[in-house]
Amino acid sequence: MREHMYIYDIADCGSNISSVNYGIITSPNFPNKYDGPARNLASKTCNWFIRVRPNQRILLNFELFSVEGDQSVRGCPAAVLRMWYSASSTPIELCGVKAPEVTWTYLSEDNNMRLSFILADKAVGQQGFRATWTEVSTNTDCQDQFLCGKSKYCIAELLRCNKVYNCGPTDTSDEDNCDIVIETSNYAIPAGYAIGAVLIALIICLLCHRKLKRRVQTVHLNDLRHRIDERHRCYHNENLLQHHHHFHNHQHQHQYQQQQQQQQHYQDLTNDSRYHLESSTSPVSESDVEEASSLNSV
Question: What positions does the domain CUB occupy (predicted)?
């Protein structure tokens, strides 16, 4: 690492960060390769300015770092990340590739830190970097804060169990024993939804009941009498229809019975006529046959 006094005020990307206790900084296009400056431009610069509360400091940890160049051999001619520990300090230069098992962690001197990522027109692009920063206090009297078990930093209580090692890459105390908290929250969220749904249903029922009660109370006496008369008239018309239907059924049955009686009477008369006709016709005797034969012989 080499120290320089370079300060770049004009930037193509980056941001000013304040009033928060944790954040993430990545190179342009991360996790894809960063790109160089636009055509006809000599360089491209990204600046990040981090400011936390007074009497607090900034803990910066690089989770991944892959920038073309080699600090120990040929330096960082194509791409470089410069970092200032405070507003008045000299920067350090970072380039090359960080091995996964190696930790790159930096602590600011005060409540300010600055990073500048500078790309020359000769840059060909690599994956870049991803860094997490956390507002910490080196005072072990952590009122309303979480005391890290190994690094002894004080961090915000809400940073516990956020799946980020805010105490540092070698201190996992802020992420230990988080299964119980997660499991409890998994049960608490559905229970909260259920309770909310029940309360909403009760409120709707209460409003409907009040509205119905108000409607019943506002019905006037004349309107009530009119409704009763209408109801009686409907019942009367229904009874008339039923009586008319019953009368027609009875009349139809009576006509049917009369037709049956007439048909039976006609059948009886027919049978009686046949009987008299058969009885009036006498059978031929033997004497009549003989008499007829004698006449034929003559």
Answer: 13-136
